Structure prediction request, 368 residues.
Amino acid sequence: MAQHTLWESRRAFVLASIGSAIGLGNVWRFPYICYKFGGGAFLFAYVIALVLIGIPLLALEFTIGYKLKGSAPYSFGKLRYNLVGYEENEERMRRKGKFEWIGWFALLVSFGIVTYYAVIMGWATNYLIYSFKLSWGSDPRSFFYQHVLGLTDGIFHFGKIQWPIVAGLAVSWIWIVLSIWKGAKTVGKVVYVTVVLPWFLLLIFVIRGLTLPGAMEGVKYYLTPRFEFLLNPALWHAAISQVFFSLSVGFGIMIAYASFLPPGSDVLNNAFLVAFSDAATAYVSGFAVFSALGYYARMLGTTVDKVMKSGPELAFVTYPTIINHLPLAPLFGILFFLMLLTLAVDSAFSMVEGGAAALIDKFHFPRK
Prediction:
């Protein structure tokens, strides 16, 4: 196994793990499924799933990486021999471990996710620039789908290359690669900005949102409990799915990150800290989203459920529409898309780092 650089401090590891866990889904997915599955009822189910499933699995992944000191494929390959009691040298265990494929499969899933994360970062990079002049104008929907994406009217009608997106994608990948250039040493420095900054920006949007007319109506949609949903299996499925996705469990990331921990680290406390930080961020994000939607609904003279969106449409259509009606609109546009970028980049480079660590373990590639 190749030698890994260790985290410079526990704080760096915790921030990096939180950054991996907290992503775009905390802002544009969690609030929506919370509303969809009974508001406070979903929060109850989510906390249950977090405590009974999420934290134990996160602690398990931390323990595997910490004890076996390797990436997901290396650790799973070595885990088999630890379990059955083989006394073989490390290199033979790495070659012969029959569980190694589990780690590679997890990283394959991560690769699929990071490819679209980088594209969304490319969109957000362009929108960060567009925010200076509010280039989306009075019709953000048409601007996003026609001008930015250049969507055609059928899958067999090929449009032209959208060069601004290509440029944004290139910038995103350069940022991702530079963030993990020297492994834990580089990541441990980057996360002090890319994890702390979006928290600060999110707080700004919560405060601004809650002071808007109609904000409380939106918050009611977000939190009002509908306990009959607790009997719906779809709610529990959604809660468990959100826990898995949000904590980055099953992607090989946390195993790789924990392999950089120094001796004497407390993986259980770290798991609790990361899990509850992620959950708290998702919960607070709901106030930023639904207060703004409440304002938007009042502005249109309709109800929140009529303007409720999730995913990219919330970020690139609904929010720009709301920003258009705020004082200092360009500033809020810049801050919003900067927040999206910093939320996305931590998750993106953590997925790439998980793969890079695996390749280094397997083929002994140098970092430089």
Summary: The chain has one domain: 10-363. The chain has 18 helices and no strands. Residues 118 and 172 are 6 Å apart (CA to CA).
